[in-house]
Design brief:
Layout (H helix, E strand, L loop, with lengths): L31 E12 L2 H5 L4 H21 L3 E5 L3 E6 L8 H17 L8 E16 L4 E6 L1 H12 L5 E4 H7 L3 E9 L8 E9 L4 H8 L8 H14 L4 E6 L6 H14 L3 E6 L10 H15 L14 H10 L7 H5 L2 H22 L2 E6 L6 H11 L6 E7 L7 H4 L3 E4 L5 H12 L6 H11 L3 H13 L3 E4 L2 E4 L10 H11 L4 H13 L2 E3 H8 L3 H13 L3 E3 L7 E4 L2 H9 L3 H18 L6 H11 L2 H17 L3 H15 L6 H20 L3 H17 L3 H18 L2 H18 L2 H17 L3 H15 L12 H18 L3 H18 L2 H17 L3 H17 L6 H14 L3 H18 L2 H17 L3 H18 L2 H14 L5 H21 L2 H16 L6
Parallel strand pairs: 4-6, 9-12, 9-13, 10-11, 11-12
Antiparallel strand pairs: 1-3, 1-4, 2-3, 4-5, 6-8, 7-8, 14-15, 16-18, 17-18
Helix pairs in contact: 2-3, 3-5, 9-12, 9-13, 10-12, 12-13, 15-17, 18-22, 19-21, 19-22, 19-23, 23-24, 24-25, 25-26, 25-27, 26-27, 27-28, 27-29, 28-29, 29-30, 29-31, 30-31, 31-32, 31-33, 32-33, 33-34, 33-35, 34-35, 35-36, 35-37, 36-37, 37-38, 37-39, 38-39, 39-40, 39-41, 40-41, 41-42, 42-43
GO molecular function: adenylate cyclase activity; ATP binding
Protein name: ATPase
Keywords: ATP-binding, Nucleotide-binding
Length: 1017
């Protein structure tokens, strides 16, 4: 470390700089994010109380209240982070994490109000606010003192709740209430408008402490059945057998949430069914500072159990001596009149309490087999700890002492009393899945979610329950427990607030050096290696190995079986997330920057640009994030992972925009958008595709780059074919072709001509579409084929073959369409890209429909549809589904046709593919008509025809008119006239556009209608 004054190197153990003599300033622990509960309290109208008092009198008036506040906070393990003159701010759950921070803060608030009220000064009234949330916590150290500071938005809500509270009332946020529910009783006050908050905030008022035990609170929240624990139950059963001849003590040892209490209570209930008497009590984190608080609970349970026994001796204290009875009364807070007790030395009193407690437990066990269950031994008070050590060492047959404890709180006397320690492990996968099946239901639809939860929680029962509860409370899972359905995709399972403290407490048990190694591993991801940690941690080898061994023993970062013998993995993802979230931004950025530099220098991840992009973004190295994000996008694009490619290109665009503004940056930004278009096109993000073109065009205009402006307009025009009206698309595309011809860039000219040909096709101008597409096709099929950035000549040629084939099919030129289809299929077979294969399937299915072979069309289209769905080629999904529905319709499979066409229409709407919405609506109407709903079919066709006419889709307008003529019943003169009008209109449009097959079909129907007097068959 370095001196803050002269920057000379100093030893961490020095108190003074040897060069300049300045005191060494430290900040321990380092700044870190913590999930805590914040308490804010102040004296109401303190200014009015002391306004007319001199300073000494003012201090003496307020100081008793402040002292009472400090005492209440410290009694329940809180830290006073700041005194405010007439109040204070305190934090629970830091600097050492405690999963009970919210209940402790609530009990401290209750005690605070009680203590201030007990001062006997009616002018001193307090109000308290409590909120649980994330803060940045740090120790500010100076030469003479240390102050624990907290920062962040969470403290402001606590302050606002305090300001809103009434006299001697405690207002609590919903986050705090949810964590303390069951331990404290609340009244919901509804939403309140608090200063600084735009929306009303749910507010609760504490009305008192709850008398529920921690086990009963946990049991009330539990929604799962008890599963497995075969090994642990066998060990407990063996202890029961041994207890027949001598006292047995068993300790269930495990981290919070592992299921110690659940196992203990399930097993004790079995013993009660076999005639065992139960004495049960638990240690409380609220009462750790209260002498004999745990022993008092044990004794009360003994007395209550004996009193309920109809065959018992009555008052079991009668067999005790006078001093021992006084000892029990002292623990039970009963009045004592015996002067001998008052004359005993403290050590003698303690001995009498221990002897009396052992005597009554021994006496009750001799009358009936007894199990004494004491939970949460890690919270036992010091006075009770000594007595429980004696009870656990009793030589009493038919007594089973069953204890539970976390590893960090195991008493030293466990070994002396020869207790059997049963280390609790997480459930196995089968048991975890059984637990999830009980909560979520047996449906196979949730299998993937169940496996994700197993991996996320490492089969810790509490974690499984709380993750499921969080998903249900958020609405991600709907239904009743035992029958829940997933209603939306889940990106991150997250960490419920109820277990953040549990994991954070485990992390606080490791040293700062081990914590630093764990943080580096968390930044690397779920899996890392010793070799990489060695490079990044910069520790001596023995220190690194000792640290990794400690983390492995703590089951935080464990070695795994792998071909690489130095592979490491987090025990479960939540440990990694809590570790990562505990770091402040500056620490995270520094670690990610070091990781990025290491990867780049050793070349191990040059083929993993996605990894480099991840670390660059989190290091906030925006230029490298742009470079690696672009590379990752290209990599995904080459693998047809279009949605992922679009995400990486978006990251690259956002990162580049965070760098300094220069002309070179703007050209990079434009080129990136041009290259990214293919990812957005294939993934069906049509609106975003259009925005890419518009934004690139704006930037090109700003730097007066004519070539890039034409390229951007070409991209915008292509998107316009899908997103807008054909008339507008034709106008834009014609202008783009003109500009591209002037520019002379053949690659962009080919793309512009393809886009114009597509616009002509959608507008029903088939002859012009063929002519325009032929120009691009000829150049792309030649030896000097050229394509713009972001695509290849072969890919663009396939698109030209596909679009030109559609046009020839619509015009009835099937031989030419077949030649183009053969060329498209050959390109797709050559590249073997899913996008190319899906495109070839689309045009092949269209050709088979044109030939009147719907069965062959369906076979081709089904393959393409599956391929498009599998690879996320969302742009092709609605059109493939639409034509597959048409193929089913023409085969007479009307139900299947309706289902597929309805799916096609919804997908087209989601993508923003206007022409696909219209086409699927037209043929969905025909399927609906075939299934007997004439009115619905007529309405759909009428709406489709009007929309097509208004927006300029003349080819689709003709198809809708033909459909109207088909579904309209010739039941009266008006309908017959309408049929003839529709057919003549369809014929006129088809004749003008060159759609000969549609024209001939409409003419045949018209002739038939005229011959039969308007009746169609």
């Amino acid at each position: 470390m370095h001196c803050v004054a002269c920057q000379s190197t100093i030893d961490p153990s020095d108190s003074w700089c040897s060069k300049c003599g300045v005191a060494v300033r430290r900040s321990e622990p380092d700044s870190e994010r913590r999930f805590v509960t914040i308490l804010r309290a102040d004296v109401i109208d303190s200014t009015g109380l002391v306004a007319e008092l001199d300073p000494e009198e003012a201090v003496s008036r307020l100081e008793p209240a402040l002292a009472a506040m400090r005492g209440a906070v410290r009694q329940f393990g809180g830290i006073v982070s700041k005194e405010l003159g007439d109040g204070l701010a305190a934090v629970f759950g830091a600097p050492i994490a405690d999963d009970n921070h919210a209940p402790l803060a609530c009990h401290a608030a209750i005690e605070l109000v009680r203590r201030v009220a007990g001062l006997g000064d009616p002018g001193l009234q307090v109000r308290v606010g409590l909120h649980s949330g994330h803060v940045v916590a740090y120790m500010v150290a100076s030469e003479f003192s240390k102050v624990y500071e907290i920062g962040g938005a969470a403290q402001h809500l606590a302050a606002r709740l305090e300001s809103a509270a009434e006299a001697n009332q405690i207002y609590v946020s919903q986050a705090c209430q949810e964590l303390a529910e069951g331990h404290v009783r609340f009244e919901f006050l509804g939403g309140k408008l608090l200063r600084g908050f735009n929306q009303s905030v749910p507010v609760y008022r504490i009305v008192g402490a709850s008398d529920l035990s921690s086990w009963r609170v946990r049991r009330a929240r539990s929604v799962s059945r008890f599963v497995d624990r075969t090994t642990e139950r066998a060990l407990l059963a063996r202890a029961v057998e041994n207890a027949r001849s001598n006292r047995q003590t068993v300790l269930l040892l495990g981290d919070a949430g592992i299921g110690k209490s659940r196992l203990a209570h399930e097993f004790v209930q079995e013993l009660r069914g076999q005639g065992w008497r139960m004495i049960d009590a638990e240690c409380s984190p609220n009462l750790q500072g209260a002498s004999f608080s745990t022993l008092k609970r044990v004794l009360l349970s003994v007395l209550e159990t004996a009193a309920r026994d109809p065959d018992g001796p009555g008052d079991i204290r009668e067999d005790l001596g006078e001093i021992q009875r006084c000892a029990l009364d002292a623990v039970l807070d009963l009045p004592i009149s015996n002067p001998q007790w008052n004359q005993l030395e403290p050590h003698a009193r303690g001995r009498a309490i221990s002897d009396a407690s052992c005597a009554i437990v021994d006496g009750i066990a001799r009358r009936q087999r007894t199990v004494l269950l004491l939970e949460d031994l890690h919270w036992i008070d010091r006075a009770s700890d000594t007595v429980m050590a004696a009870i656990a060492s009793l030589q009493a047959p038919d007594l089973l002492v069953l204890l539970t404890s976390r590893p960090n709180g195991m008493p030293v006397w466990i070994a002396r009393c020869r207790a059997e320690v049963v280390a609790m492990r997480p459930l196995d996968d089968d048991s975890g899945l059984a637990m999830l099946a009980d909560m979520l239901g047996p449906s196979a639809a949730n299998d993937d979610l169940k496996n994700r939860i197993i991996s996320h929680t490492a089969n810790v029962p509490l974690f499984i329950e709380e993750v499921c509860r969080g998903l249900r409370d958020s609405g991600t899972l709907r239904g009743q427990w035992g029958d829940l359905a997933l209603v939306r995709p889940i990106e991150e399972l997250g960490i419920p607030s109820s277990i953040q403290g549990v994991i954070a407490a485990r992390l606080d048990r490791v040293s700062r050096q081990e914590r630093s190694v764990l943080q580096i591993a968390a930044a690397l991801g779920p899996r890392s290696s010793v070799a990489m940690l060695r490079k990044l941690a910069e520790l001596p080898e023995d220190a690194l190995q000792d640290g990794l061994a400690a983390l492995d023993r703590a089951e935080l970062l464990v070695r795994i079986d792998s071909e690489l013998d130095d592979a490491l993995e987090f025990r479960h993802e939540m440990v990694r997330q809590v570790t990562y979230d505990s770091m402040v931004d500056k620490v995270r950025e520094d670690i990610h920057a070091r990781v990025l530099a290491t990867f780049e220098s050793d070349g191990t991840s040059t083929d993993e640009p996605d990894t480099l992009c991840y670390h660059a973004v989190r290091a906030k190295d925006w230029y490298k994030a742009f470079v690696h994000g672009k590379s990752a996008g290209r990599k995904c694009l080459s693998r047809s992972a279009f949605s992922d490619a679009a995400n990486y290109f978006e990251i690259a665009m956002g990162a580049l925009d965070k760098t300094a503004m220069t002309p070179l940056r703007e050209t990079d930004a434009i080129d990136l958008r041009m290259e990214a278009r293919a990812a957005f096109i294939a993934s069906g993000q049509v609106a975003e595709w259009l925005d890419l073109g518009k934004e690139a065009e704006r930037r090109a205009g700003a730097i007066d780059d004519i070539g890039r402006r034409v390229a951007a307009m070409t991209v915008r025009a292509g998107a316009q074919n899908f997103y807008g009206a054909p008339v507008e698309a034709v106008v834009v595309s014609e202008e783009v072709v003109r500009l591209a011809e002037e520019w002379g860039n053949q690659g962009w000219l080919n793309l512009a001509r393809y886009g114009l040909g597509q616009a002509y096709f959608l507008a029903g101008r088939y002859r012009e579409a063929v002519q325009t597409l032929a120009l691009a096709h000829a150049q792309l099929a030649g030896p000097d084929a050229s394509a713009p950035i972001g695509t290849t000549p072969r890919y663009l040629l396939l698109l030209c073959c596909m679009m030109k084939g559609f046009t020839h099919t619509v015009m009835g030129e099937l031989d030419t369409a077949a030649q183009l289809q053969q060329q498209a299929s050959a390109i797709a077979a050559e590249t073997d890209r899913p996008y190319d294969r899906a495109g070839a399937a689309y045009s092949g299915g269209w050709l088979m429909l044109g030939r009147g072979d719907p069965a062959a069309a369906a076979a081709i289209l089904e393959d393409g549809f599956v391929l498009a769905q599998k690879h996320g080629i969302r742009l092709f999904v609605p059109v493939l589904a639409c034509h597959l529905g048409i193929a089913y319709l023409e085969q007479g499979l009307f139900d299947r046709a309706r289902g597929m066409l309805a799916e096609a229409r919804e997908e087209a709407k989601a993508v923003g593919y206007t022409s696909a919405v219209l086409r699927s609506s037209i043929y969905l109407a025909l399927a609906t008509w075939r299934l007997g709903d004439v009115n619905a079919a007529q309405n759909m066709l009428r709406e489709a025809r009007n929309t097509a006419r208004q927006q300029g889709f003349s080819g689709l307008e003709a198809e809708a008119l033909l459909g109207e003529a088909i579904v309209t019943p010739a039941s009266d003169a008006a309908n017959k006239a309408a049929i003839i009008v529709a057919l003549r209109a369809a014929i006129a449009i088809a004749s003008e556009s060159g759609a000969l097959p549609l024209q001939h079909k409409a003419e045949a129907l018209l002739n038939e209608a005229l011959a039969r007097g308007g009746e169609l068959t």
